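Hi F.,

I've been meaning to write this up properly since the lab meeting, where we talked about keeping a consistent format for the predictions we share between groups. The idea is simple: the sequence comes first, exactly as it goes in, then the structure tokens exactly as they come out, then a line or two of notes. No screenshots and no reformatting. I'm using this chain as the first example so we have something concrete to point to.
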Amino acid sequence: MIENHRFLITFAQVFEINFKLLLLKAMLRLKDCITLILKIMYLTSEKKQEFFEKFGKSAKDTGSTEGQIALFSYRIAHLTEHLKKNKKDYSTQRALVRLVGKRRNLLDYLKDRDIEKYRELIKELNLRR
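Output, unedited:
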């Protein structure tokens, strides 16, 4: 037993308190890990196939302009939400600007090649252009 002028604590109690603190720290780390995994897994391969199936010619046609524009739009929306929470994340901000530029180039390409598909895609994705 440890005697202090105010407390009388046994070693078992000290061990139990330390164990609870370690368990709490581990749970907090686990929560951080789960949050990180969810952030990374926002765009799974199934989700990508879904975009290419809906907007492209098929799920396997990952090079279609329409599918890539839809995928970029989804990523842009995700990064925009992230930047609303983390205003000083400048590397993500730079990535967002690059992604918007890529989407803009693809939209310009599609507009030059097939104006009807361009107009349909703009309506489906609710893009302001």
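Notes:
Strands lie at 2-3, 8-9.
The first strand starts at residue 2 and ends at 3.

If this format works for you, I'll send the rest the same way.

G.
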